[in-house]
Amino acid sequence: MKKIDEFVHSLYKDVSGDKQELDDLKQEMRSHLIEAVEELKFEGKTEEEAIRMAIENFGGKKQIVSGLSEFFRVQKKFTNVVLSFALLFFVAAIVSLLFSLANVKEYKKESKEAEASHLERYAIMYDVLDVIDTPGGEITPKDKNELQNVFKRYQDKINMIAVFPVKGSEEWLKDNKEVSMAPMNHFPIDYKKSSIIVDRDGIVRDKEHIVPSDYDLGTVIHANGRWIVQYEYKTSYEDTIEKYHQISYYSPNTSSFYYVPITFFSIFMILGAIWLFMRKQNRQLQSVIH
């Protein structure tokens, strides 16, 4: 079958690529041709006739090259489409990464502001308790002045500060033990029971007409051994309080901001690998055609 070997070799002599792959392709083509020759010989043809007819039936070199040329044209076009989509996803990955970085920066800024508001609730509360934590157990005129100063210090954030005696509120404290542990957001106590209330106008005399905040996070309460302190946030400051609450309980992981760019980069890499593989195949086909 020397002619068969020469024919197969002539088709692949200029093809570059993996030697094992080329040997497998040549062996497969040789097997098909030999099988066709044996069938033709069985029908009564001589070996020379059978080889010639098998090669002609196989299509001949020109027809094979013509078919490869058409396949090469289609595959090259598809390769370019793959490259276009790969570049598109690369650009999308870069753009989404820039957006993600900006969002992470804004998220960290909001987190920092929200954390500051949380720490400030302790500062407000303990500033008030420091004023009223006197040996006599009564709020003196000096304490009242100092309470007004505390309010002025935080007046851009709170509406009022109220102080209640623990005496007479034992049952309430028993049912709300958490307020003794740390400053807590809580539904407000009736202001009529307070010993003193301070707002922007000073000491509040008319307790009957105070309307408590209806925002569920708008009031903070804390109790020590003798006093219960309660203050309300200004409506304009509630957004900051809400952000802290959302960040504390529903905060996304920072890595989640990068899911989209990571996905786009992954698709780009997959398409890039496909493009490189097809580009290699195209070069092999082109070497066969030319």
From TrEMBL:
InterPro entries: Perm_prefix_1. Keywords: Membrane, Transmembrane, Transmembrane helix. The chain crosses the membrane at residues 81-102, 257-277. NCBIfam families: perm_prefix_1. The keyword Membrane applies. The keyword Transmembrane helix applies. This is Uncharacterized protein. It comes from Peribacillus deserti.
